[in-house]
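Hi R.,

Here's the chain you asked about this morning:
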Amino acid sequence: MKKLPVKGAKYLLSLVGACLLLWIIRKAGWGKIVEILSSMSPLFLFLAILVWMLNLAFGTLRFKRFLATDLSFFLLLELYLLGSLLNYAGGIQGFGVGARIGLLKMKKVSISRSTASIGSEIAYDIILASIVSVAGICVYGKLIFEELFSRLMPKFLILPAVMILLFLSAMFLLRKNEFLGHFMRNFLRAFSSRNVVGNILNTLGLYGSVIVMFFLLYKAAGIWINPLILMFAVSISYIIGLMSLIPGGLGVRDAVTGYVCSLAGIDINTALSIAIITRFICLSFNSIVLLIFVISRRMHDKTSSHAES
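And the predicted structure, written out as tokens:
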């Protein structure tokens, strides 16, 4: 039996995500997306970008808090951005996580501490998103189960469920392993009574800024939307995007966000267009900031080498 080539299989989920995103763009219509973007209020668009900057600050501060390190804020921001962007380059969710762990190791941060830190981030995200999603399902349950879950959940639940079972089995078998012991101590530190309140506030700030950004982009397009709907959309799209295993939830999160926002009576193509615009703004801004970091470092290195010579 011929094996599936590793290189061909490696980027399969990325391809699926890209195809799904292109399908969403096609459904919404390039013309519709361009029309909405060109008609957006510059003031609200600028405010939305400022809020995204605040989101990056919250994310980096939380990263630093979970990591319990003396590394500078700007270095951690660079690692945070790089991990976020590299996640789209991998064949499965977690490529960016692996990059962050590898770069932190170069900075003398143990793998057990860095993995526990990133694991804590994901755990807090899942807990908050799950609570909000359950509350939203209680309100919009019938529509969600009939339209969204019936189409997406059967496809996305099987593999994550198997992976969770394998992970729990591995944790049990390796319970006496030294690395696992260090990992669990670092992981549980994020949930200690001394740290939990600050970590919850950081996570709320992280999610709150995303919701405010979406709200401002809708306002920029001249549309008012209930912030509670946005809270539900952001939360459940994160959960379903995570379960899909597609890098960054590419396409999945955009489709779910657009669909849930359409429950507020907004045209589905408009909601999808704004979801696409939001992803474009976030990825573009992250790329620009990371590029500035890279150019600044190269200029600094060049200046240092000239000074030494």
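The first helix runs from residue 6 to 10.

Let me know if you need anything else.
M.
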